[in-house]
Amino acid sequence: MSLEDKIIITCAVTGSIHTPTMSPYLPTTPEQIVEEAVRAAEAGAAVVHVHARDPKTGMPTANVEIFREILSAIKDRSDVVICPTTGGGIGMSVEERIRIVPELKPEMASFNMGSMNFSLHHMLRKYKEFKYDWEKEYLEMSKDFVFRNTFKDLEVVAKVFYENETKPELECYDVGHIYNAAFLVQTGVIKMPVHMQFVHGILGGIGTHIDDMIHMKRTADRFFGDNYTWSVIGAGRNEFRLCTVGAIMGGHVRVGMEDNLYLEKGRLAKSNAELVKKMARIARELGREPATPDEARKILGLKGKDKANF
């Protein structure tokens, strides 16, 4: 099977959206995040997307040393591509979020393509009691939160990426973000070929209808033709539905507990590996073999794990 037919499965291991109350299986300590990342890779993920959390409370953190501990341990145990976040968590500054790139020089990292309302407050309708005091306040404050990524921010962040030979994964939460990416390519801020992540289902961004994803893909096609790669995220119950259609359309996919806590309706996933195994099975049934980490590196044009600073 040629590389063009391979599908890159990314696993977003913990994220900054779900809180510890929402699932007893959500990894929050460095040891748990590392174990989940390694098991996800063994299950078929070529890329793991990593956030860090405070090991005592499970609250999202931008602490570089916690990131270093997590990323180094994953690298020691697995050949998987490690893609840390520069999106961080609610309330973090752009400077805090980007710090890991010059410090750790990963092969790839997420790069958000525009400002938006990014709200989690609707989750309060489902959860009334919380394991930690910070959880309710964290969800409530998102109702008045603007996820800041101005054009000035984007120029600064892009410069940091290229100075450290880190491939940007362009996170597009709506169609306007694709237009932003195209403008940054046209003005030389971002280099081709690009890798785009279409993010569906965040309150404040584009929805989860199949037509929404097709519109995102058609818009990207107009700007970038065949000179880009793309992946799709479906938040919550839409994870496997959107990823399946994305796989049929020739895209790559992302699953994991950052995006979705359930293996099926009413059944919590006990590990990220369960989510990856399900997606790998679906991909194979569609005639697409999951890419290995080294195949993903070739498809995405990455510098190699030996050039990361962790």
UniProtKB/TrEMBL annotation:
Cofactor(s) this protein cannot do without: Zn(2+)
Keywords: Metal-binding, Transferase, Zinc
Record carries keyword Zinc-finger: no
Pfam families: BKACE (PF05853)
Keyword Zinc: yes
Family matches, as PANTHER family: 3-KETO-5-AMINOHEXANOATE CLEAVAGE ENZYME (PTHR37418:SF2), 3-KETO-5-AMINOHEXANOATE CLEAVAGE ENZYME-RELATED (PTHR37418)
Entry protein name: 3-keto-5-aminohexanoate cleavage protein
Organism of derivation: Geoglobus acetivorans
